[in-house]
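I have been asked to look over a protein record a colleague put together. The record follows directly below this note.
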Amino acid sequence: MDHPASLLLDLPGLFLAVPAAALVPVEEALRRLGPDPAHPPPPPGAPHLLAEALEHLGRGLAGAGGFGEPQADLAAVALVAGDQPVPGSATLAELEAEVLTRLSGAEAAPLQALALAVARLRQERLRRARRLGIAPPAPVLTRKAGATRRLASATAVFEALRGLVGNNPLFADFQQKAEEERRRMGRVNILIAGKTGVGKSTLVNAVFGEQVALTGMGRPVTQDISWYEPPQLPLRLCDTKGLEMADFSATLGALEAEIEKGNASGDFDRRLHILWLCIAEPGARVEAGERAVVELCARHGIPALVILTKAIGPRAFEEVARRELPAARAFVRVLAENWDDRAPFGLDALIQATERLLPEARQAAFIAAQRVDVERKRKRAMKIAAGAAASAAGAAAVPIPLADAAGIFAINVGMVAGIAVAMGVSMDRDSMIAMAASLAGALATSAGGRMIAGQVLKLVPGIGSLAGGAITAAVAGSATYGLGYGFTEYLCRFHAAKGHMPAGDELREGFRKFWESWGEKEKAPPKA
């Protein structure tokens, strides 16, 4: 480059020509992209290393960018990620002017933020060069035929996926991952005991949803014990009857036999994991049968949680219950539904106490089944997303061709299935088909996601070929985490509005509309 200002078109020359403070936005944007074990972000104040890092990233985006020049490909992929058109031919300055015009103003994803930071840095220096009459000559770059000019809209992609059916390999993979997650989580078994009329069904409805009511047909073990197994929740409820009767020994005998049978099976899923003993607070009395069931569970290592239901008083009864039931591990006061002018309370405390007392191996199943504390579900879901992002970044530590991206796509499939299970989404066939279609549609409408999903989505009619190229750890990590974060956020918002998790068509259509406007499709995972 013989022209005196031509170094402005070269990353090392540009970065060396500006003060260190001017490079801070570029450094911060690069760090936001997420960890790349093979090429970690350079230390602050090292312009030559920063230039090398960006050139490495740009080379990894060559297939999707289409220009074959790292800086131009970074700008092109940023435009594609923002659902903006990319010129077929342009100078580097013209491409970056498009980035500034079309992507400024809105909250930018990490890759877009990086392209904006570089474009702002260069455009300011080029303006100065033009004022001095020394603007460098810039070659016109031509984008190769077949490079993606614009991402398909979320609506178009999701519509193309509407016909996804159960014999599609994508659905089969999702179904397999979902079943693996369900088996790994297991089921939580709760023994519910209490006198008739204490509000057990009301409590169960409030915690787990109306479909789990202790009414209708349970599976009877004896005339005193029945199991209720809601098919779409990781939950089994063992209901006892007869504690208020003078002769409650038959109930206790049947219950002890059931406990011993579960323990002898060697199957943790058949054991009782916790006792919920419901005592109506207004009655202000602990019965002999209630003391006996707490002592029975204590002998077998089953933690007892005493729930004072219909908690409208007297408050002093809690101290009486604590004295008379010393083997109980915890006590909570709960009003599960409105009572005159009193609003429900205590359900959050019940969730916290139950999670604390349960064996660690069944805490996740309980949090997934309950519908009271969605924030606890969110925390578990985001751990799954962060773990998947780290796995995807690790798998792409050395850039790999798109044809070998199936491993990273499988990580995304497992992540979405894991989040759905952790959040308590129904795993019926219609819902799993909807989630498989949502996964494919979401990946197909983000730039990094297209690079991950390309070969797999060719299995779905109507999508067509997607952009090729190498996948860097940063792209794999941010696209994966962005999908997990977005899917979790959609589920939380739906639950807040409707009081339950979406299923079937409401999941597919609701997520499509959410994803269209979701601004963090590629989000760097949090630092460990």
